[in-house]
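hey m, so remember when u said the tokens were messed up on ur end? i reran from scratch. heres the input so u can diff it against urs
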Amino acid sequence: MNTSSSTDGGDNATVLEKYGHVMSYLQYENSVYWQRGNFFMIASAALFGFMASNLASLGASPRWEKILALLVVSVAGGTLTVLWHRSLLAAEYWIDHWHEILRELEPQAFGDTHLFRDPPPDKGGPRRIRMRRITKHTLVLFYILWGMALAYSFVAMGLKACGRT
């Protein structure tokens, strides 16, 4: 008979094993979060660089092909940013999910040791730098940039259609 079993019926070794598996899932999700984020950021920056280099060559009287290319690239960049945002939200869900499971397993695995249950107080206060927040601010920056590029392409189309360029 096992006298060290928890209320869930598992002994400490089993709980530690579960904890280790969940920690592996958390590490994987964190790794994927940053890999996807980096991919989308690099792809968005490259696309924006392409668009900006073509924007500089529009000149005083842009051709329709250039304006339409700018419109297509702006829509593609905005779509890429939406996909990036959705990817971050999905990854954050799973990271938070695994954190919650670790908090539930922690008392059985480590007793009074608090790893995830009671996070340490923020050093540097509420204004300290958090990487997730920086990622979200970068995402907002790209939303703004693509919105401005889209607006510019519509203005350029309107001016071209009215014969003002």
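this time it looks ok to me. Confidence is low (pLDDT under 50) at residues 1-9. if urs says something different then somethings off w ur setup not the seq
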